[in-house]
């Protein structure tokens, strides 16, 4: 029995869910809290040293990190492959997935932080504007990557497409349009018309509706490229202010060793 611990606000969670659906696998979902919704459950913290979603449990195996999970699914369940057969194209898919999971995620997160979670912060508009500019720059890059192809690695949907869609579908409710990029826009519509694309878009829309209706103070997680984004754009004061307000949080430290070790 496959169990996915996830939250629709996490593009990494939705990437894994789309991968499971693409492969036609039977699984169940356990919703985990994010952004002040109660935080990670005790069970999740036991399963992942970072206390983050997504986590995949397949029988006795527990796997965390979305890229590792997707690689596991590809190897354990080879039907309906997500990676191209040719080694160079497989490497290309992995590279583009990594770009989505790092630089693009950080730019979209900056928009989300500035427009939703921290919209009352002094530098919120600057954070959102810088994020939107970087999203558009990356959209132009993916426009070039697509070229005349239907998908990023040719005629078949690959893992890079899933990773990119899971990120970009989350920027639509934030008001950052990619209409200026006709090839990318057509690609977005093409995936939205598939069952997995439609389900993912609906999950994002419902998650944003819940966030806007909530009266709870949402918190936001900073790590890796997200922190790098703030410093690269001279917005470290924004992050510092959110830490002082108690709204920013970071992945947990490893448990302390017992005395004498």
Strand order of the largest sheet: 2-1-3-4
Alpha-beta classification: alpha/beta
Element order: H for helix, E for strand? EHEHEEHHHHHHEHHE
Q: Describe the global form.
A: globular
Number of domains: 2
Rg, please? 18 Å
CATH topology of the largest domain: Glutathione S-transferase Yfyf (Class Pi), Chain A, domain 2
Q: If helices are DSSP runs of H or I spanning 4 or more residues, what is the number of helices?
A: 10
Strand portion = 5-15%
User: What is the average per-residue confidence, as pLDDT, rounded to a whole number?
Assistant: 91
CATH architecture of the largest domain: Up-down Bundle
Number of strands: 6
Describe the overall structure.
It contains 10 helices and 6 strands. With 261 residues, it is an alpha/beta fold. It folds into 2 domains: 2-76, Glutaredoxin (3-Layer(aba) Sandwich), CATH 3.40.30.10; 87-245, Glutathione S-transferase Yfyf (Class Pi), Chain A, domain 2. The strands form 2 sheets. It has a 4-stranded mixed β-sheet with strand order 2-1-3-4, covered by helices on one side. A two-stranded parallel ribbon has the order 5-6. Helix 1 links the parallel strand 1 (2-6) and strand 2. Helix 4 packs parallel to helix 6 (159-168) and helix 4 packs across helix 9. The protein is globular. The model has no long low-confidence stretch (mean pLDDT 91).
């Amino acid at each position: 029995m496959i169990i996915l611990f996830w939250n629709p606000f996490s593009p990494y969670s939705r990437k894994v869910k789309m991968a499971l659906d693409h492969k036609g696998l039977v699984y169940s979902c356990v919703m985990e809290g994010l952004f002040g919704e109660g935080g990670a459950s005790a069970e999740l913290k036991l399963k992942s040293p970072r206390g983050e979603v997504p986590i995949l449990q397949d029988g006795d195996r527990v796997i965390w990190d979305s890229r590792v999970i997707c690689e596991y699914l590809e190897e354990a369940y080879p039907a309906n492959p997500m990676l191209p057969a040719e080694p160079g194209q497989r490497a290309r898919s992995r590279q583009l997935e990594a770009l989505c999971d790092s630089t693009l995620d950080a730019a979209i997160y900056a928009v989300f932080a500035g427009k939703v979670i921290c919209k009352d912060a002094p530098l919120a508009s600057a954070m959102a504007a810088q994020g939107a500019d970087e999203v558009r720059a990356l959209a132009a890059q993916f426009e070039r990557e697509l070229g005349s192809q239907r998908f990023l690695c040719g005629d078949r949907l690959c893992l890079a497409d899933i990773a990119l869609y899971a990120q970009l579908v989350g920027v639509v409710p934030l008001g950052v349009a990619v209409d200026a990029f006709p090839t990318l826009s057509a690609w977005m519509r093409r995936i939205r018309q598939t069952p997995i694309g439609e389900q993912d878009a609906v999950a994002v829309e419902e998650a944003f509706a819940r966030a806007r209706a909530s009266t709870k103070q949402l918190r936001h997680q900073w790590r890796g490229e997200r922190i790098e984004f703030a410093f690269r754009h001279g917005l470290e004061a924004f992050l510092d202010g959110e830490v002082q307000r108690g709204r920013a949080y970071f992945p947990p430290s490893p448990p302390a060793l017992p005395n004498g070790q």
